[in-house]
Amino acid sequence: MFELEILNHWIVPQQGKNHSEIDGEPFNNAEMGHKIPVNGVFTDGNRSVPKTHFCTWGNNLSHSLDFTQKPTILVVDDTLDNLTLMTRLLKDLYKVKIANNGENALKFVQEDPQPDLILLDIMMPGLSGYDVCKILKDDPTTRDIPIIFLTAITATDDEKKGLELGAVDFITKPVNPPIVMARVATQLHAKAAADFLKDKAAYLETEVAKRSFLMK
Predict the structure, then answer these.
(1) Domains, the chain, with CATH or none
(2) Which of 74, 96, 173, 216 is 20 to 30 Å apart from 35, CA to CA?
(3) Residue 30: predicted pLDDT
(4) Which of 78, 139, 92, 82 is nearest to 114 (CA)?
(5) Which residues of 51-146 form beta strands (DSSP E)?
(6) Average pLDDT of 136-164?
(7) Residue 20 scores a pLDDT above 60
(8) What are the angstrom distances between the C-alpha of 39 and each of 10, 77, 146, 149, 162?
């Protein structure tokens, strides 16, 4: 195993240690998952394979929202404690990716597979959560990804602004774990239903076009 320390907002492995720590709190291998990409490196035992610059916990499963496989959730927050908390909360049911700022979040969303849901902090240096949400909703390739804002902001006007930008929900910090899990599950099921209907409509459209061509 290895010890973790923070470098430029990323988790960097230190080999030759007996445990893993974030801010002095021990993690065991079962908690962290079989593979932990850190600082662009997938670490699995003593093996390291270069990967893109994000951290992922959980099994490497194919992208399918049929709930026989783990949906992917992207958590975006500039605070390591919040990223750690949300990862621990979600990792047993979902594949979790994390980004420590808005710029990285936009890069990760363009990777394949795209996340099925984004948990997005509002107050971040650089691009705010509002900025990220607007960019994603203006892009046809990402506009259908549901976004839940995770934030300490509780003002009605701020919540209204986020919903107008296209967010589907707000969860206030400090988070209530059962509420987080319930709202995440609700939005993932809603997305699964929407994706099914969209795929069915596309299939029917193709069948109609095919039959129209054959009848000519």
Answers:
(1) 1-53 (no CATH), 62-216 (3.40.50.2300)
(2) 173
(3) 35
(4) 139
(5) 55-57, 72-76, 95-99, 117-121
(6) 93
(7) no
(8) 6, 16, 27, 26, 31
